Amino acid sequence: MGYPKEIYNRAYDKLLKRKENARLKAAANKQQLYAKLPRLEQIERQLNLTGINLARLVLNGSENLEQAIEKMKNENLSLQKERDDILLSNGYSTNCLDINYFCAKCSDTGYIDNNICDCFKQLLKDEAYASLGSVSLLSSCSFDNFNLSYYPTKLGDSSDVNPRAVMQGIYDYCVRYARNFGNGSDSILMMGHTGLGKTHLSVSIAAGVIEKGNAVIYSSVQNLMDRLERERFGKDNAADDSKSYMQLVLESDLLILDDLGTEFATTFTNSCLYNIINTRLIDAKPTIINTNLDIEKMEKMYSQRIVSRLACQYRVLKVAGKDIRLVSGMKNKS
């Protein structure tokens, strides 16, 4: 679906402000130059009258129209040369009266020959990042700084699990997932204890998916349910607002839900969660869900129809290791 309408609107508003600021700055610059060099303003007025004078010639049916147009053209060229000479002789460039747009390629319109300009693409990406509501996470979490050395090669003498090898495989899968993301990509259930990199990897995927121009919604389950419930019950027009935001959640190219199992469970939240999971599966819209719960604990907290979809229709990634926050903290102290 690309970026949601609200992201387009915010980005386009910024584009319009850029354009307006450039024009205001150019107008102020002109006034300063006109005050210092009055002849420039006279020349500008004469040049601006060209269109009006040309229209008069055509309407009056002048017999020597071609000669009149040629004369007008020569006068314009002469005025332009005079203007340039005045500017150069006073130490200014000949284009100092032009509007200096932020983007010289599209003149801050956002489009070049009906194709979206790179400057507008960047604004859309910036707004998409901001819409995640966790800029600090985006700035600190990436595939490049995911440190596998924090994961041990063994979890005690009684375990055959090699956490570093497990996490290497999950990391490689996530990198490929972000690189090849598209409608129909797997939905992912990332399971494991706190502090093992689930959020880091999810945010890294989000950044890669946004870079490709896709819409991403990232939220903890609790925050998402709070918003849906607040809009559903907290306003006179709540039903319409809730529907519109739920529609955004359902249609987003990628939905990432963090901390499943920490939310305050109610009939309303369980119904919303099932609707989101089931609808996005039907529509082949990828979803990533992170949880500290194992399947057994999930079965105690959620209905069978939710758990069965997560366990059977999602790609289950079980992270392993020790809390990397504690490991990194100990390494920094040593």
- Biggest sheet, strands in spatial order? 4-5-6-3-7
Known CATH architecture of the largest domain: 3-Layer(aba) Sandwich
Cα radius of gyration in angstroms: 30 Å
- Total domain count: 2
Unreliable stretches covering 5 or more consecutive residues: 236-243
Give the SSE string.
HHHHEEHHHEHEHHEHEHHEH
Please report the distance between the alpha carbons of the first and last residues: 49 Å
CATH class of the largest domain: Alpha Beta
Largest sheet: 5 strands, parallel
Structural class by secondary-structure content: alpha/beta
List the total number of helices.
14
Features of the shown structure:
five-stranded parallel sheet, Rossmann fold, 334 residues, two-stranded antiparallel ribbon, alpha/beta, 2 domains, 14 helices
Task: Lay out the secondary structure.
Blueprint: H1 5-36, H2 38-48, H3 50-59, H4 65-89, E1 111-112, E2 115-116, H5 118-131, H6 135-140, H7 163-179, E3 188-191, H8 198-211, E4 216-220, H9 221-233, H10 238-251, E5 254-260, H11 267-282, E6 287-291, H12 295-301, H13 304-313, E7 315-318, H14 324-333
Helix pairs in contact: 1-2, 1-5, 2-4, 3-4, 7-8, 9-10, 11-13
What this model shows, in words?
This protein has 14 helices and 7 strands. By secondary structure, it is an alpha/beta fold. It has 2 domains: 16-102, no CATH class; 132-333, 3-Layer(aba) Sandwich (Rossmann fold), CATH 3.40.50. Strands 4-5-6-3-7 form a 5-stranded parallel beta sheet, with helices on both faces. A two-stranded antiparallel sheet has the order 1-2. Helix 1 crosses helix 2, helix 7 (163-179) runs parallel beside helix 8 and helix 11 runs parallel beside helix 13 (304-313). The two termini are 49 Å apart. 27% of the residues are buried.
